[in-house]
């Protein structure tokens, strides 16, 4: 019997949300030693050295704070330190961030910027601070500045945590068209988190996208009949109508999307159409991220996956999100083509 994502309504405990704040499985085995800087890009070797140094200093911050003297109260924890890796797509920033995570003692956390905002939404601000205050480091991948409310929320959260001795490492992507514009992203980052800017050291990582290949265009959508047949003959596959799936996503907190696709081997979506609603599009971005992190292939009928986000949306403030989601959706659809071959 074919399964449907629309029939799932997962319940995720707060402890599970915290426990799942780890690097994607593709970064399980990375380390500083496995990061190979390009000899043509000196900034990569410099960034590797800075990341190693950050991890060493962050361990000392947590190890040296909060000691109790014989006749004194427990001292205040040392201020956490910060590292910001700024650069284009595919230069190894996430590799370095995951290496920092793996080199640090626990408790520790790794999350995307979006996942961190979702955690606060699910648990509440005070509860989130309490659950993360004893961490040695928080690693935040893909720090985003496109939503002022979210930026202020995370800035306040990081201010609270760094004051409790938690060190912060983060990355962000400079769009290809903005490379060379005076370190555009780093300037914006430090301005938007001005209360925290004194603890962050911005480090530039340059180079071409190592993942860039002469990839084929987006796979052609399947027919509805072929999609149904594939879903019925693939164990643990799901089959959903695009409009119904978008409506179902609106009923779930984004922090549940990971659990939504847990155990799914293939996601089949019929009658995909271009999205004109910003809220729907942003939910699809989160779903694409969760599918990509879990390595779940995706195949569809309807329009091509590189047509989901309209030109108007790609020209707007969430351009970076939509470009990343499109890239990931296309990769997942190519996984499905390989599996079906």
UniProtKB/TrEMBL annotation:
Coiled coil: none annotated. It comes from the Bacteria. One of its GO terms (molecular function) is ATP hydrolysis activity. Pfam families: AFG1_ATPase. One of its GO terms (cellular component) is cytoplasm. Keywords: ATP-binding, Nucleotide-binding. This is AFG1-like ATPase. It comes from Gordonia crocea.
């Amino acid at each position: 019997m074919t399964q449907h994502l629309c029939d799932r309504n997962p319940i995720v405990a707060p402890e599970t949300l915290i426990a799942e704040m780890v690097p994607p499985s593709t970064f399980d085995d990375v380390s500083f030693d496995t990061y190979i800087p390009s000899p043509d890009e000196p900034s990569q070797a410099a960034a590797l050295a800075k990341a190693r140094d950050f991890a060493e200093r962050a361990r000392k911050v947590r190890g040296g704070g909060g000691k109790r003297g014989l006749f004194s109260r427990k001292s205040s924890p040392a201020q956490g330190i910060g590292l910001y890796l700024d650069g284009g797509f595919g230069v190894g920033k996430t590799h370095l961030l995951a290496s920092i995570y793996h080199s640090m003692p626990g408790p520790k956390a790794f999350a995307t910027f979006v996942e961190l905002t979702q955690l606060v939404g699910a648990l509440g601000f005070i509860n989130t601070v309490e659950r993360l205050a004893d961490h040695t480091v928080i690693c935040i991948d893909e720090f985003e500045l496109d939503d002022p409310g979210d930026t202020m929320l995370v800035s306040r959260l990081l201010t609270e945590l760094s004051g409790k001795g938690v060190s912060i490492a983060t990355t962000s992507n400079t769009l290809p068209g903005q490379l060379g514009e005076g370190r555009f992203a780093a300037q914006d980052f430090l301005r938007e988190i001005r209360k925290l800017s004194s603890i962050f050291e911005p480090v530039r990582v340059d180079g071409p996208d190592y993942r860039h290949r002469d990839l084929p265009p987006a796979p052609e959508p399947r027919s509805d009949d072929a999609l149904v047949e594939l879903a019925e003959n693939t164990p643990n596959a799901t089959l959903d109508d695009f409009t119904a799936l978008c409506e179902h996503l609106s009923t779930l907190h984004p922090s549940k999307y990971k659990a939504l696709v847990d155990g799914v081997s293939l996601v089949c979506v019929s009658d995909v159409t271009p999205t004109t609603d910003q809220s729907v599009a942003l939910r699809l971005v989160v779903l694409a991220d969760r599918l990509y992190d879990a390595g779940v292939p995706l195949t569809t009928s309807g329009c091509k996956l590189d047509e989901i986000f309209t030109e108007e949306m790609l020209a707007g403030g969430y351009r970076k999100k939509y470009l990343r989601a499109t890239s990931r959706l296309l990769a997942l659809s190519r996984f499905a083509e390989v599996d079906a071959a």
